[in-house]
Amino acid sequence: MIRIALLVARKDLRIEMSSRVLTWQVLPFGVMALLLCGLALGPTAAGHSHAAPGLFYIVITLMALLMINRSTAIESNRGTRSSVATLGLDPSGVFLGKAAALVVEMWLASAVLLVGTVLFLHVDRAKTLIALPTIAVAVVGLSLAGTLYGAITSLHSGSATLLPILALPAFAPLLIAGERAYSAVVYGGNLKVWWSLLLVSALAYLISGILLYGVMEES
């Protein structure tokens, strides 16, 4: 399973590096969206509002949906699915590999957005660095859930619009816990509760993906 996961992750990352969709399309979209959020708050409110963590997670969610659709599109071709079925690859390994590749891409996107959060929304840089572990875990959870729900929608027409409808409710615990954890670090609050919810949610999607990914792809 681990060997298949590494092969799938390497394949997805190589495709991304050659296409550069993340670099030239997704990242510019995220930066512009975050900049517009800063402009909407205004120069005065941006430095005193507590909305920055929430805006960060809204933008990273939009970027995640784009990247999940991109990741799913790689496997959506019927010929590719037939080849995977013929090879007899372990669905759990495929799930872990696709999720791992998505995690790497999402971590890169999050790093860029956090720089934008500091610059555009005037969030304290040192406290943002302290919040990095919670953000990293939230991104892992989003990637795991997104990979699982991407498999559900991949064979349906209009998957690009169906994915947000199905995935956003699943993202809710991660987004709420991630935003509250980020806010707790920057503005003060109970961090332990939100840390626990993040870890439990990410673990639940990891187990669900390992057990159900193959079934979801065939449904």
Mean pLDDT: 84
SSE string, helix = H, strand = E? Answer: HHHHHHHHH
> Would you report the number of β strands?
0
Note the main sheet. Answer: none
Share of helix among residues? Answer: over 70%
Query: What Rg is obtained from the alpha carbons, in whole angstroms?
Result: 18 Å
Shape: globular
Helical segment count: 9
Q: How many structural domains can be distinguished in the coordinates?
A: 1
- What is the CA–CA distance across the termini? 22 Å
The unreliable regions are none
Main structural class: mainly alpha
Which range does the strand content fall in? Answer: under 5%
Task: Characterize the structure shown.
The chain has 219 residues and is mainly α. The chain has one domain (2-218). Helices cover 86% and strands 0% of the residues. It has 9 helices and no strands. It has helices at 2-19, 21-41, 52-76, 78-87, 91-120, 125-130, 132-153, 159-187, 191-218. Helix 3 packs antiparallel against helix 5, helix 3 packs parallel to helix 7 and helix 8 runs antiparallel to helix 9. The longest helix has 30 residues, at 91-120. The two termini are 22 Å apart.
What attributes characterize this protein structure?
single chain, 219 residues, mainly alpha
Short description:
With 219 residues, the protein is an all-alpha fold.
How are the SSEs placed, and which strands pair?
Layout: H1 2-19, H2 21-41, H3 52-76, H4 78-87, H5 91-120, H6 125-130, H7 132-153, H8 159-187, H9 191-218
